Amino acid sequence: MSEQNSATGTSFPAAGASTGPFGDLIGLKLTEVGADRVAGEWLVTPQLHQPFGIVNGGVYCTVIETLASVGGAVWFGDRGTVVGVNNNTDFLRAVTEGRLRGVATPVHRGRTQQIWQVVITDESDRMVARGQVRLQNLDPR
Fold first, then answer.
1. Total-model pTM
2. Cα-based angle 104, 137, 71 (whole degrees, multiple of 5)
3. How large is the average pLDDT for residues 28-42?
4. Of 32, 65, 97, 123, catalytic
């Protein structure tokens, strides 16, 4: 379940598709994929905890980068590929269990760069983390 980028030969994941080996490792599943919004969710397990029993901040960074990159790639489409060049993540609430959801939306989309904002919420719709990713748009030449 993916779309093919004819300029680069790469595939964009569709809702329900894998987010790649690392995304699969943390259990991230895409629930919505579009050029203006990407969403995903995952279940918190003890394997995602840091030593104090809460979700490791790297999990949030991974989800934020993944959702922003998928959205940026879908929007940029056949013009080339995108790569993350900055990920700034704020951790707002400790989580030990439950299902988390991330939603990415664009802040700026330009000729050479994009900025995407991602908000992660828990099952009670409380914000637990938020982040911003700057993507570089790469021309296939």
1. 0.90
2. 20
3. 97
4. 65
